[in-house]
Amino acid sequence: DTEVTQTPKHLVMGMTNKKSLKCEQHMGHRAMYWYKQKAKKPPELMFVYSYEKLSINESVPSRFSPECPNSSLLNLHLHALQPEDSALYLCASSQDRGTGGPAFHGYTFGSGTRLTVV
Amino acid sequence: SQQGEEDPQALSIQEGENATMNCSYKTSINNLQWYRQNSGRGLVHLILIRSNEREKHSGRLRVTLDTSKKSSSLLITASRAADTASYFCATVLNTGGFKTIFGAGTRLFVKA
Q: Strands B61-66, B100-102: parallel, antiparallel or unpaired by DSSP?
């Protein structure tokens, strides 16, 4: 069982809808990530939060809005998405850089949310 | 092309055979990691090899690292049907310490 929990597992939304993806971890990790993965491709980094502050935004369109309410939770708010945004969205967590970060300890991934935009 | 390229792209073997996957990267690294992803699910961390290590074992997994050639290999011995998955190598860029580049992945299919 993964220690990073993502909900929902599947989501179908229209292009005018507003929805949110949720991610929760209780491992005490202070870095949390959103990745996007298209079929048969590797994960692509979208956002990184470090100590609840946005550290990296990989030039993601504003229709994706991340939020980190506390050290255990990470949300991704979705609005006015396009069909090409359909993908598997993965949340991950890691120790922060001060204790080695993902370079020395790796990531723990959630099982992902399969998003379909119609 | 991206940091972390893997070959083969796909590999089909019989149960009990060994599977070898290769990864090449471009920049200097601290460590290199391997992950497994079952279809449509999250990635699972398998093993991390540090830049000053040449070989590392974990159960049926053996990872090698050649920093002079900027390459790594993952060997799965005595494969099982349950090993069917995609395997990705990953390197964390030295700049910032958060950005990881994943290889394109090798899709392994183990036939029972």
A: unpaired
A60, with CB counted inside 10 A (0-12, 13-18, 19+), is middle
* Residue whose structure tokens are 């093993």: B47
Q: Would you tell me how many other CB atoms lie within 10 Å of the CB of residue A49?
A: 22
Q: What is the mean pLDDT of residues B66-77?
A: 95
Position B65 confidence tier, pLDDT thresholds 50, 70, 90? very high
**A89 to chain B: nearest residue by CA?**
B42
DSSP structural state of residue A84: G
A103: which chain B residues are within 8 Å (Cβ-Cβ)? 30-31, 92, 97
Q: What secondary structure letter does DSSP report for A83?
A: G
pLDDT band at residue A78, thresholds of 50, 70 and 90? very high
